[in-house]
């Protein structure tokens, strides 16, 4: 059944750094069309997992499937071209570049030529530039950043920079969004705007996987939750199932 193929599935995934088993056999799926929260204490292996899925790191062993397709060994730009967009906890925006140029740069340079070719195959350079400019304008509008288009990124607040970081990733039209602590350090009003945009992206059919430390936010926003602990999967399920799981309460949520 094609519709039940997960957007992302990892199985028995292992990544060691010297003697440290950063990811130690984790197994879970991200249902297609879901908003899935990835939680777990510091050091649980969440960021390493993101690096493995996006091709920044190669696993020692285990499987990584995007919509059923094995992607172990793919380079980051190939994973991006396959529809995975990933934000970083510390935004990868360029302080000395305008907001609009940051977005244009993301479309053309972020993931190398092959991603660009996939989007604009068969178009002339002028057509490509027009397509990028249109997408920049759409993305600015979508994130309510149009009034800041010509500002240097360094002039943005921390929260606005998180929005721009999301915009950077949206330039390549990802079907799976992986967000690393998108709300960390963002004020409540901008957090609400960011979450509202994430919901809109999900309503368009995009799958969302996000790391977040605010458990109440995760329980409120997600339809599926994955709990990592010591590099392994401690539990997966609905927010209600996670809240009721004794192992999760003991290891992580506290008494
Ligand atoms: P999380 O994102 O859940 O806080 P990480 O994936 O960052 O966890 O880290 C998992 C474990 O792997 C930690 O013990 C961390 O210190 C270790 N680790 C992560 N990256 C490296 C690295 N490049 N070299 C050595 N150890 C690392
Ligand atoms: Mg981390």
From TrEMBL:
Under Gene Ontology molecular function, one entry of this record is: ATP binding
- Which Gene Ontology biological process is one annotated for this entry? amino acid transport
Annotated transmembrane regions: none
Q: Which UniProt keywords are present, listed alphabetically?
A: Amino-acid transport, ATP-binding, Nucleotide-binding, Transport
Q: Which SMART domains match?
A: AAA (SM00382)
**ABC transporter domain residues:** 8-255
Tell me, what's a Pfam family for it? ABC_tran
Sorted alphabetically, which CDD domains does this protein's record hold?
ABC_Mj1267_LivG_branched
Q: Name one GO cellular component term.
A: plasma membrane
Q: Which InterPro entries match?
A: AAA+_ATPase, ABC_AA/LPS_Transport, ABC_transporter-like_ATP-bd, ABC_transporter-like_CS, BCA_ABC_TP_C, P-loop_NTPase
Give the signal peptide, or none.
none
Instruction: Name the protein family.
Output: Belongs to the ABC transporter superfamily.
Biological role stated in the UniProt entry? Probable component of a branched-chain amino-acid transport system.
This chain belongs to the protein called Probable branched-chain amino acid transport ATP-binding protein LivG
Protein species of origin: Salinigranum rubrum
Q: Show the taxonomic lineage.
A: Archaea, Methanobacteriati, Methanobacteriota, Stenosarchaea group, Halobacteria
